[in-house]
């Protein structure tokens, strides 16, 4: 955040949208002497609690309201890095009350110092169920408390050297891109010729297990209700993103076990496409896989994604119905091994 001066008028209320577009660093954001009223998180309205500072992890964004209700003067806005080993990186801006000649205090407001504080703050975020219209996905996901889980998938991160090159993996498999895009090959019925399904299992491997370099495509049956667990045995925060779906229900410390389901928030957890996993902790998703296609599940730490810590989830339906998926557009470009075969029959 570049240093600049923002002008405020006393007793006015201002909205700020704060996005963390870092490739690996969490940040803490705060206004000197002013509380922030959280009103939106990752596209969802929240219960409007007040915070002196907010931890914002990579891939997340918040909207806050700030009221200019302090003694007229200049105040700092501070953004500082979190969970870095060597040093804290800090950037500032200044808000200026109209007509004031007072300079900002030289003492910046301090950020919290441990990840347990961040963990507890996350627990305070709640979806505002009275705002806007009905909750999304009325056919399944928000009835998750009364739906039986049909499958549990646990993912754990690992790293190792393969042919003297560093690779990252999920459940022992490090993804390698194919020449032909996965969805294109699957649409034309050639998926089995260019990659194998389900090369990664539903349970983590041992830490000493070798890493395999493979195109990683995992199948999940259409319209099944699946529990996905991310486990973090490391000392740094991890984060993951799943295209096409969103729903986070719980976090906890230590190893995940079925008994931990009792701690899930089944009512008003804030839905999102990205999930962070604290050190020596776990995070859980529950969702109905009713969105047909191939969806990327990847680490939000970009060097890990580049070095293989990602996979694709293939959600298929045996019925070629326009209710579930559109046909390939006539103008779509073909590439790789799919350049000349006749198109499959369109969806009906």
From TrEMBL:
SUPFAM superfamilies: Cupredoxins (SSF49503). InterPro entries: Cu-oxidase_2nd (IPR001117), Cu-oxidase_C (IPR011706), Cu-oxidase_fam (IPR045087), Cupredoxin (IPR008972). Residues 8-99, 217-318 form the Plastocyanin-like domain. One of its GO terms (molecular function) is copper ion binding. Pfam families: Cu-oxidase (PF00394), Cu-oxidase_2 (PF07731). Belongs to the multicopper oxidase family. This is Uncharacterized protein. It comes from Zingiber officinale (Ginger). The lineage of its organism: Eukaryota, Viridiplantae, Streptophyta, Embryophyta, Tracheophyta.
């Amino acid at each position: 955040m570049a240093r600049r001066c923002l002008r405020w008028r006393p007793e006015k209320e201002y909205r700020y949208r704060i996005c963390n577009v870092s490739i690996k660093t969490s940040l803490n954001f705060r206004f000197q002497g002013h509380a922030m009223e959280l009103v939106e998180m990752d596209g969802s309205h929240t219960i409007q609690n007040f915070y002196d500072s907010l931890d914002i992890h990579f891939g997340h964004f918040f909207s806050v309201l700030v009221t200019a209700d302090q003694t007229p003067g200049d105040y700092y806005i501070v953004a500082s890095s979190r969970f870095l080993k060597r040093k804290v990186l800090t950037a500032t801006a200044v808000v200026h009350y109209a007509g004031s000649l007072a300079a900002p205090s030289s003492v910046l407001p301090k950020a919290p110092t441990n990840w347990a504080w961040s963990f507890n703050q996350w627990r305070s975020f709640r979806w505002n169920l009275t705002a806007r219209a009905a909750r999304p996905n009325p056919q399944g996901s928000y009835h998750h408390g009364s739906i039986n889980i049909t499958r549990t998938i646990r993912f754990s991160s690992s790293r190792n050297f393969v042919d003297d090159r560093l690779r990252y993996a999920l459940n022992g498999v490090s993804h390698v891109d194919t020449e032909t895009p996965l969805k294109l090959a699957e649409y034309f019925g050639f998926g089995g010729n260019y990659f194998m399904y389900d090369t990664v299992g539903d349970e983590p491997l041992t830490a000493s297990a070798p890493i395999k370099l493979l195109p990683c495509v995992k199948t999940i049956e259409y319209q099944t209700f699946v529990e996905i667990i991310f486990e973090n045995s490391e000392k740094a925060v991890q984060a993951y993103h799943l295209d096409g779906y969103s729903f986070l229900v719980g976090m906890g410390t230590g190893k995940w076990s079925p008994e931990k389901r009792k701690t899930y928030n089944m009512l008003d957890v804030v839905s999102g496409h990205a999930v962070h996993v604290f050190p020596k902790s776990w995070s859980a998703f529950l969702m109905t896989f009713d969105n047909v296609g191939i969806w990327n599940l990847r680490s939000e730490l970009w060097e890990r994604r580049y070095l293989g810590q990602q996979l694709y989830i293939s959600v298929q339906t045996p019925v070629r119905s326009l209710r579930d998926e559109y046909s390939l557009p006539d103008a779509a470009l073909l590439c790789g091994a799919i350049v000349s075969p006749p198109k499959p029959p369109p969806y009906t």
